Amino acid sequence: MGIEKLIGIAGTALKSNVMRLDRPYKLNFCVTFNCQSRCRTCNIWQMRPTGELTIEEINRFAAANRYFKWIELTGGEPFLRSDIVDIAKAFKEGSDGLYILTMPTNSLCDHVMVESKLKAILELGIPRVAITVSLDGYKELHDMIRGIPGNYEKAIDMFKRLKELRKSYSNLYFVFGYTLSKLNMGKFQETFDAVKRDIPDIRYNDFHINLAQLSSHYYNNEGMDIRPNEPIVVKEIADFIDRREPTVSAITIIENAFLRKMLEYAKTGMTPMPSRSLEASVYLDSFGNVFPSIMWDMKIGNVRDTGFSLEGILEGEGAKRAIEEKRKGNEPQHWTSCEAYQSLTGSVINILS
Fold first, then answer.
1. 223: left (phi over 0), alpha (psi -120 to 50) or beta
2. Quick one: which of 12, 103, 139, 247 is 20 to 30 A from 113 by CA?
């Protein structure tokens, strides 16, 4: 079944290369804006959200939109939702061809609780469950950026627990997620060396690097001076690419392509490939609002107004305006994995085939 679903997502990604899809295959879903972090690169933690989608509403949404092959459950901190297992189950049962479920974590929730909930999610039978453990620096640096003393040790412990869990669940995949910002530029190698002292068998391939981004409707950080803008950033990304192991797998090839395009973005500030927002993917926030992407604050509807179906929203006037703005080149410039992978996947699969 896993192979069949992989073929399904590959075929959809390939199709997106040559024609416009009639519905997205990836959903970026912020399940909650609640967060215990106090990040200096993001203001999500300052929100006090009320009226977020209930599990009953999420079940209705999943049942009404059965075509997703890739679900990203993000936040905030996704594990702050006590019903996170039920949310994953809703999409497992509601999406006929679901192949991959991805989630980040700040490692600040109780680790025994997280491990228990993650086991339950892994046992749902989703072919691939990918967890990103946020880590933005060595001990002092990470704790400063995240605003929580002791956060570094918690991230290291979470990663070690995932390594043990992987022995029992072959569908588990995990990496450290390093957000490269103005606060930690030039510090990745020092961070890697610190992690290696705590996890001796760590590899460069165990890290995923993203560049810090600005978003008024998601990160709530518009106007922050956080973007890495020194020449050292380009060298840092290039060195990271050179140090990664040259393994032959679809995920490694896609990741390497993502990094090479990140180099272009770091040099120019321009999105290096055509966006697939509103075509291959769509962003749903925890209040039911729908946007073309995490980076584009152009609201096109709310699923509570459509009986939780996306169809009317994706065919509505808001979506048409967004598509026209894309055509004119007015979509915000960005390069982040939440959006970039959809642009890359079809191209890379085409090469591999």
1. left
2. 139
Burial class (CB in 10 A: 0-12, 13-18, 19+), 11: middle
172-185 pLDDT, tens per residue?
A: 999 999 999 999 99
Environment class of residue 248 by beta-carbon count within 10 Å: exposed (0-12), middle (13-18) or buried (19+)? exposed
Largest CA-CA distance found in the chain, in angstroms, rounded: 55
Instruction: List, in order, residues 6 or more apart from 348 with CB less than 8 Å away.
Output: 250, 253, 254, 257
Rounded CA separation 83/78 (Å): 10
For residue 136, give the nearest of 207, 48, 233, 235 by alpha carbon: 207
User: In terms of Cα–Cα distance, which of 60, 36, 65, 9 is closest to 342?
Assistant: 9
Interior angle at CA 79, CA 75 and CA 83, nearest 5: 105
Give the neighbor-by-neighbor strand order of the sheet with 281-284: 207-211, 172-180, 128-134, 100-105, 70-74, 26-30, 281-284, 289-291, 301-302
In this predicted structure, what is the pLDDT of residue 346? 55
In 3D space, the residue among 57, 169, 36, 157 whose CA is nearest the CA of residue 106 turns out to be 36
Helix, strand, coil in percent for the chain, rounding step 5: 45, 15, 40
CA angle 289, 290, 293 (to 5 degrees): 130
Report the predicted TM-score, pTM, of the whole model to 2 decimal places: 0.91
As given in the structure block, the two tokens for residue 273 are: 């490939």
